[in-house]
Specification:
The protein is built from seven helices and twelve strands. By secondary structure, the chain is of the alpha/beta class.
Length: about 325
């Protein structure tokens, strides 16, 4: 038999009766009463037995100490894209309240820094990283910073997204279509890739990815082809990620949001186009309700998953739409 997996070769100790194997999981081993090389109950051919508490092995480590890939870490870390405002900001603050250190990604540095300050005031660590999630190099740099700073990632909330002006489909510029696809779909895919690469190899292994879907992942609004198409595609990405993540302890779910009160929904107070050709105001809800839902999804153990959840303003015209 070989040395137990918990044992690590002694550093600077001679192979005599006085040496120990110093474990990296809080247990220390030394040769037992049997002659060296005889087989003991623990330790195989080396005759190792548990040597009791060891200051070197059992010294407590700070949960906020920067880690490296492959090292054990107990502190939970979350990444939120589009974290500078709206739903992203609400979710980032909610995760911080739940005990997470939070990485904040977005296009504008100033709002990210403001949210980071709010998180740090709660006693949690925050990293503000301006990112163009539609650009592969920018996303690679984002995840490099995540690993460098925290050593792991437990939750990714793919939230960043943009819309397009409500125009007739045949009048929509292709450049506008591509911009929405790059942010809403390609960005979510690139961030999912980055999360997979880190979650597959970190210790403990695995993590959770939560995608921001939208009511538009089910039925469209008038003149919303780019946004609706990308949100339907996000549902496909969610399903594929959930399937491909099983082997690596990576769970994936989706929250479909309807009319959270943010800068994007201010126009609903004045009225937005309806399928019958009219323009009417629509009710909204506090974005904190979305944050509460995401925090719940994130709180589950990795052997349980909310695959899809819809959180919406109760009286918004969704049921019956289309």
């Amino acid at each position: 038999m070989a040395v137990p997996k918990t044992a690590a070769l002694p550093l600077g100790d001679a192979p005599t009766r006085g040496w120990r194997f110093h474990s990296r999981v809080g247990r220390c081993w030394q040769p037992g009463a049997l002659p060296f090389g005889a087989r003991a109950a623990v330790g195989g051919a080396f005759g190792l037995v548990y040597a009791g508490p060891c200051e070197r092995c059992e010294a407590p480590q700070s949960s906020t100490t920067k880690g490296r890939r492959g090292e054990m870490s107990t502190q939970k870390v979350a990444l939120v894209t589009g974290a500078g405002s709206g739903v992203g900001r609400a979710v980032a603050l909610g995760l911080a309240d739940a005990g997470y250190d939070v990485v904040l990604s977005g296009r504008r540095p100033e709002p990210l820094q403001a949210v980071a300050a709010e998180i740090e005031a709660k006693g949690r660590r925050a990293l503000a990283q301006p990112t163009d999630i539609g650009d592969e190099a920018s996303v690679i740099e984002l995840f490099r910073r995540v690993e460098e700073t925290f050593g792991r990632l437990d939750v990714l909330f793919n939230n960043a997204g943009i819309g397009a002006p409500p125009v007739e489909l045949d009048e929509l510029p292709v450049a506008t279509w591509k911009a929405v696809v790059d942010t809403n779909l390609t960005g979510a895919f690139l961030c999912t890739q980055g999360a997979f690469r880190l979650m597959k190899t970190q210790q403990p292994r695995g993590g959770r990815i939560i995608n921001n879907g939208s009511i538009s992942a089910h039925v469209p609004r008038p003149f919303s082809a780019p946004y609706t198409a990308t949100k339907h595609a996000i549902t496909g990405l969610t399903r594929s990620t959930s399937l491909d993540g099983r082997a690596h302890d990576i769970a994936c779910g989706q929250v479909d949001i309807g009319n959270a009160a943010t800068d994007m929904t201010v126009r609903m107070q004045a009225g937005v186009p309806q399928p019958d050709g009219s323009t009417r105001p629509e009710p909204t809800m506090d974005a904190k309700h979305v944050a509460d839902a995401v925090v719940y999804m994130a709180s589950l153990p990795l052997d349980a998953n909310v695959q899809f959840m819809t959180v919406m303003a109760t009286k918004m015209p969704f049921i019956g739409r289309g």
